[in-house]
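Figure S4 source data
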Amino acid sequence: MKLLAISGTIVGAKTAVVVNTVVEKLRGKSSDVDIDLLDLREYDMQFSDGRPFEKYNKDTQEIITKVLEADFYLIGTPVFNGSIPAPLKNVFDLVPPSALRNKIMGFAANGGTYQHYLMVENQLKPIAGYLRAYTTPSYVYAHTSHFNQNNEIVDEDLLGRIDHLAEELLLMQNAINAGKVDDYNNLPSVAKNNRIYLSERKEANIG
């Protein structure tokens, strides 16, 4: 099973630190998870404007492909002006809404005030609901005070919540896997359509 761990910002370091810490916990709990890291700081992502897949640059095509191929997601984001940053919203806009249906999302956010944790409830969960994705019961919110001057997490309570989020992601994905079959003809339609979408572009030497 493939997890896509997204650090959904092109500035700052704390979001990537939180995402990588969750990933480390996941790796310590299971060797069955293929984890792919998507740090938006490392990509020249173009704006979603409705153009065909092949018209985007290689970095943007790679982002779309990573999202479509993942089975479940860890989405990390800072809180800017009470909302998610534009690059993360752009990732959601680049993929067909059906691509995330019935897939699991776990959220890890960070911000400069304690009240900003509500952004997960007011922004991210409604997006997941619209996309018909499942969300973990818990999520992580990291405050600036939870880090030292080297952007290392030093708050034990936060580390405990991170461990719990990793546990929930594994538990929920394993539960979904228990109800799946390997026969391609019996795959849920969303997964099948995503594979067809990518296969057509590979056959056309696109991406």
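Figure S5 source data
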Amino acid sequence: MKRLFIAIPLEDRVGLEIDELLFSLDVRSWSRTTKHDLHITALFLGDVFEQIIPDVKTIIGNIASRARPFALRGGRTLIMRPDEPTMLWIRYDRNQWFERLVADLESSFHRVGTWERKLDRKQRKQGGGDRFPIPHITLARIRGGGMLDTLLPPLEATALMDNFVVRKIALYETVAGPKNEGAFHYEKLGEWTLGGDDDNDDDS
């Protein structure tokens, strides 16, 4: 089985600017997200049997063809979660098109993977007190399982991060790093243009 999720990949210029911004974080305190792994999660699928991944890709392609590009606005950095401050986010304003995309994915994949709709919504509420999906980018996590003693973010989002157009969605696999190191990274298994052509070049 493979642990999969569906997400919005960042444009190269946005990812590069975030990557440069994160160099200002103290690596002794923060585990920074690499440029390769930056994304906006739309739906976590959990563990999925490898033999149905081609079907998963087909469904995502169909959903992407029905959607249209949309803009995320109001991006600002903040510390999440307020009750257990461990992560640095760029959080965007609530967006009806993002919510429609997530709802379409949820209804299409409610029987695929090990995620549970109720648990997913519970985690959303715990993450920020909201019952609707929150478009966000996880920039960094505090090291060593500790928590911050302040909710003041250590850096600010730039104008480029504040407002950008979502044009694609992608399927990712969470890949574990070397044993006992606890590290992981994300591998892109396919990518689709909203309202456009299938950019997936993997026929598996």
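The chain has one domain: 2-193. The chain is about 25% helix and 30% strand.
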